[in-house]
Amino acid sequence: MKDTLILAIESSCDETAASVVKNGRTILSNVISSQIALHTLYGGVVPEIASRKHIEKINQVIKEALKEAGVTLDDLDAIGVTYGPGLVGALLVGVAEAKAIAYAKKLPLVGVHHIEGHVSANYIEHPDLEPPFLCLIVSGGHTHLVIVKDYGEFEILGRTRDDAAGEAFDKVARAIGLGYPGGPKVDKLAREGNPDAIVFPKGKLGDCPYDFSFSGVKSAVLNYINNAQMKGEEINRADLAASFQKSVVDVLVEHTMLAAKDYHMDKIAIAGGVASNGALREAMTRACEKRGYKFYRPSPIFCTDNAAMIGVAAYYEYIKGTRHGWDLNAVPNLKL
Length: 336
Ligand code: KG4
Ligand code: ZN
Fold this sequence. Notes:
The chain is built from eleven helices and ten strands. By secondary structure, it is of the alpha/beta class. It has a five-stranded mixed beta sheet, sandwiched between helices. A five-stranded mixed beta sheet has the order 8-7-6-9-10, with helices on both faces. The longest helix has 26 residues. Bound molecules: 5'-O-[(R)-(carboxyoxy)(hydroxy)phosphoryl]adenosine and zinc ion. Zinc ion (ZN) binds next to helix 4.
């Protein structure tokens, strides 16, 4: 059978990325141009700067992805692109580029939900993984616990009521002076700290056992810092990072294990930027081993934003018959 080659484009936030994916599971190239250095100056992503940088980089990133894969635009079967959720100006750059290539080369256009992309990152390195499975999605903008019923088909069991897990990491990082991007810096510093040094609240919600809330732990960290400053006490930042991280990771793991038990799921996956967190990966591995569940997680490079995951999701949408027209628009708050 002829191979299906998809060029995928991702520009929803601060990474300009392109990838060529063969038959949905083989990554022929994965090029990511990160804008982190640029946004670090401002302590977070500046949407206008992100859009401009995407425009500057996108053609070069696509050329590199095609070259690395050893293919030309004439070899492609479809163009996949993230059309939401994300920053509207940033998304528009990728969507306009994808439409232009698809139109010029008379190729099908497949719009992809960014979060469906994150979940699909799990298929890259796990050829045996197929739906149904339970997936914890933890990124900068989302925290969802879902059953992946089929490719691109989700039943949402729980979600965050306030901050996303990644957002909590970023805010705590800023409060202890680690700067942007916060998650990886908290992860690194926490390795030197004692996770049991400070007890932070765990954000349990009585009415829906699968929902999350991280604003309480974030406020508790800020109060802890303020109190210490008022008393003139030195803060052990490594202990604080480790203790905060533990309270978040414990809740993520507990809710996931509860859902697995209640819904009789024995295949558990994690996805999104926070899925690259060392403590979360270790805690999930242990929890799944203890219960005899199979645990899947993408390599860290496929957890944070990339176009390979968009190419994988685009492939499964493509074979289902999903096609978008030239009126495809960026949808900043696209629902799962
Ligand atoms: O999935 P992602 O790259 O972008 C979104 O779709 O949001 O996730 C980015 C988020 C940021 O909040 C970042 O701080 C967090 O993921 N993150 C981490 C780690 N690496 C990235 N959080 C904790 N530990 C990490 N190692
Ligand atoms: Zn993302």
